[in-house]
Amino acid sequence: MLLDIEGLTVELPGADARRPVLDGVDLRVAAGEVVGLVGESGSGKSTTARAALRLLPEGAAARGRVSVAGTDVLAAGPGELTELRARRVAMVFQDPRAVLNPVRRIGDFLTERMVLALGTPREQARARALELLAEVGLGRPAERIRQYPHELSGGMLQRVVLAAALATEPELLLADEATSALDVTTQAEVLAVLRDLRERRGTGVLFITHDLHLAAAYCHRVSVMYAGRVVEDRPAAELFTDPRHPYTRALLDCTPGLDSDRAPRPVPGAPPSLATAFPGCPFAPRCPEAEDACTAWRPEPLPLPGGTVACRRADISAPRTAPHDPSLETR
Question: What's the CA dihedral at 149, 152, 158, 164 to 10 degrees?
Answer without folding.
Answer: -50
